[in-house]
Design goal:
With 308 residues, the protein is of the alpha/beta class. It has 13 helices and 8 strands. Helix 3 crosses helix 13 and helix 8 packs parallel to helix 9. The protein binds flavin-adenine dinucleotide.
Amino acid sequence: MPAIRNVLLWCSENEWLKNHIPRYRFIKKAVKKFMPGESASDALEAARKLKGNNIPAVFTRLGENITSLLEAYNTTGHYLKLLEDIGNAELDGEVSVKLTQIGFDLSAEETYKNLARIALKSAGMNKLVWIDMEGSGYTGATIDFYERIKKEHPNTGICIQAYLYRSAEDLERLMKIDANIRLVKGAYKESEGVVYKSKQKIDENYFNLAKVLLNRIKQNGIRGAFATHDLELVNRITGEAERMGIDRNRLEFQMLYGIRTNDQKMLAARGNRMRVLISYGESWYPWYVRRLAERPANMLFVVKNIFK
Ligand SMILES: Cc1cc2nc3c(=O)[nH]c(=O)nc-3n(C[C@H](O)[C@H](O)[C@H](O)COP(=O)(O)OP(=O)(O)OC[C@H]3O[C@@H](n4cnc5c(N)ncnc54)[C@H](O)[C@@H]3O)c2cc1C
């Protein structure tokens, strides 16, 4: 399985494939499992349905490493309009943004201005904005950026990846500024010198980082969200939270649209906070192939759609 995962992660970064694969109809059909559609209205409609099960949403428009500041500015405008639509539809929805989607490869200053606009709009609606974590080449700069923006815009949160060796130190540093944290395992192609490779080690590190977050959640210091579909980890974290006397309704899990839907409903029904991240947009290729890499069995959906 690790070999297939590596090939898929390589595919997710390949420019030729990125330009050609999305043209195939059977691939587009398979993508539907993880993405309600390419437009914001498709995502809003999916959020409306989740609301029926008491599950709020996080929205992210797919796209990364944009190459012009005009594109970054337009993406920012898109998120501002989306927040407006979320408000009008009376949905509990936040947004999650990749810094390279709003100009980080081109200008940190412009990226700051763009994210500040989204944060300001979100603050007016009493919402938090999440910053995704991208490949390890961006980790340090993303954390520096977050430290800066958190001072001026406390309604921001950052993602931390448990597969990185450095994350324990990063989390310690971030706890000093009461960072809001979304904890994930990590989705990118990384080398051995940077990340734990075995599932067991990643899971152990996830749980250790989760305990740091639980301590701060207990003190009411931060918003911490455990973003994983790993039910064993969900159970370990739930057990630890109970042991620490943290109420269920203060324990937040996040999952991706289309993955473990029944468990999402179960967690919401039993009184945990459960939020689902809904991705949409035309630039879905690298993101979708990372989802296949997480579970190569998902390739079966692609194959089935060839014959449909
Ligand atoms: C809300 C949210 C935000 C995220 N943000 C980021 C981010 O900013 N940066 C980043 O690097 N990563 C991000 N990720 C992705 C994350 O890093 C993992 O790659 C992803 O969540 C899979 O890991 P897992 O914790 O579910 O555990 P795994 O050990 O990968 O999976 C546990 C089980 O969950 C199920 N499962 C997991 N993935 C899939 C899938 N694709 N299809 C079907 N079943 C699956 C399987 O049953 C699997 O056995 C995010 C994930 C979530 C849920």
